[in-house]
Write a structure and sequence with these properties.
This protein has about 260 residues and is α+β, with helices and mostly antiparallel strands. The chain is built from three helices and 13 strands, in the order H-H-E-E-E-E-E-E-E-E-E-E-E-E-H-E.
Length: about 260
């Protein structure tokens, strides 16, 4: 056995010597190979990430914001604020009436109060050629230049009227005029010039009426007298008239200044 080993050793020749330089070179080669493997792994991960991001943007709406950044995938919606609770109101309380007056409104009649012709002039600066049947006119409000500024139409036959909300049982007429504040003639309570407001007809005059539906005559109406700056204002909050808009316009068209 020994002779065979010796013969093989002689055939293979002497073992090459290994120096310190050879060992250092091998160590450097190993380190470089390790660095290459790490770099390859990082690059592969970056490519995979880029592919994922690219696929993500490809399925979203494309676009670019003004600063060069991609736009969001969809429109953003601001959070809807929680609506404030409605103020408490007693059943039947008049909308727009005095908040401290909790009396119910005057009863609505089964049939609207009809209009009838009248030859008797109303007290005050304005009179009308029609009047709600059975109703009366009185002067109210403060005095201006010696004359009361407002006229109220009420039903004298309404039983125990004080049991009802005050604003629910009268129709008020007052004098007003268009004023020019530098933007054109404007009615009081409005900031838009008269020429720009939507109009309705009250008799032969043009008029502006507050928003609402045609079935409800409890509205405020501004009736311009011809082409003058004088305006007749009617505020109808009378539940016990039972009027619709057409009846209010018919009545308003019969009202005019006495002089």
């Amino acid at each position: 056995m020994t002779d065979l080993k010796e013969l093989l050793d002689r055939a293979a020749g002497a073992e090459p010597g290994v120096s310190d330089a050879d060992l250092s070179a091998d160590l450097d080669r190993g380190r470089r190979a390790l660095r290459r493997r790490r770099a390859t792994g990082i690059a592969s991960g970056a490519v995979a990430t880029a592919l994922i991001v690219g696929v993500g943007w490809s399925v979203l709406p494309t676009g670019t914001a003004t600063d060069g950044a991609p736009e969001p995938a969809g429109p953003t919606t601001a959070a809807t604020p929680t609506p404030a609770p409605m103020p408490s109101r007693s059943p039947g309380q008049v909308i727009g009436g005095l908040p401290g007056d909790h009396r119910p409104p005057a009863p609505v009649p089964s049939t609207p109060v009809p209009l009838v012709a009248t030859a008797k002039a109303f007290p005050g600066p304005i009179t009308c050629d029609l009047i709600p049947q059975g109703w009366a006119v009185k002067l109210v409000g403060t005095k201006q230049n010696g004359d009361p500024s407002q006229q109220d139409l009420t039903d004298p036959n309404l039983r125990n009227p004080e049991q009802y909300h005050a604003e629910s049982r009268y129709l008020r007429i007052r004098a007003s005029q268009l004023m020019d504040q530098g933007e054109g003639l404007t009615a009081d309570k409005y900031s838009t010039p008269w020429t720009d407001l939507p109009k309705v007809r009250a008799g032969k005059n043009e008029a502006v009426i507050t928003p609402g539906n045609t079935r409800n005559g409890r509205r405020e109406l501004f009736v311009r007298q011809g082409r003058s700056t004088r305006v007749v204002v009617l505020s109808n909050s009378a539940y016990n008239l039972g009027w619709d808009q057409a009846t209010l316009l018919k009545f308003a068209g019969s009202c005019h200044y006495k002089k």
